[in-house]
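Still learning folds. Look over my entry:

…
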Amino acid sequence: MSPDDGSAIDLKRPLVAMLLGWLVPGLGHLYQGRRFKGVLFLVVVLSIYITGFLLGGGRVVYWSWKPGEQRWAMACQAGIGIAAVPAAAQSMLLNGVGKAAAAGGFMAPPVGLNQPVAESYGRAMMRRNPGLSEDDFRRQPRLRLWELQRDELSMWHRQLGRWFEIGTLYTMIAGMLNMLVIYDAGFGPLGSIRDDERRGGGAGKSNSSTSAAD
């Protein structure tokens, strides 16, 4: 029931709505026919996420759970849904057998000190980081691997300054807001009143009115 006017809200299949709402903010509401809320959430939540992503130079959303390099912010950012999925895929590629992320390292985690990467990925890193050169890598010719002799995350912080933290905060807020959107899609508006509660409230008012009259 709507807490505003008491009208019925058809949640259809709540689990499907919640999944759709996680994939794309507001999509669960559009599936339920709640168009105004769906469009509102889509625009607002994605606008906050994209703003933070751009403020952080496209580097603030990445997946890293290596010891000492845990990206705890990702626990909140993941709430944004499909927009954060490439980060998980890039992390698996970079830390897997190939040692190279796709798409030039878009949304890939930073390379740590002495971390081996494929030669092709090392060259891609130099293209996106003008401060890097071949002298910053130690080569392993037989394995065709390069080991970075610097910490890429520290380089990002120096290049972006406070915008790295501001961008991180914006993307975290967007993810957490979408968790509330998902809840609304699955369980309805917060503070909704069920029919029996409404009837009970009405009965209580009637009784009090009768007592006052007596």
Summary: The radius of gyration is 25 Å. The chain has nine helices and three strands. The chain has one domain: 14-193. Residues 14-193 form one domain.
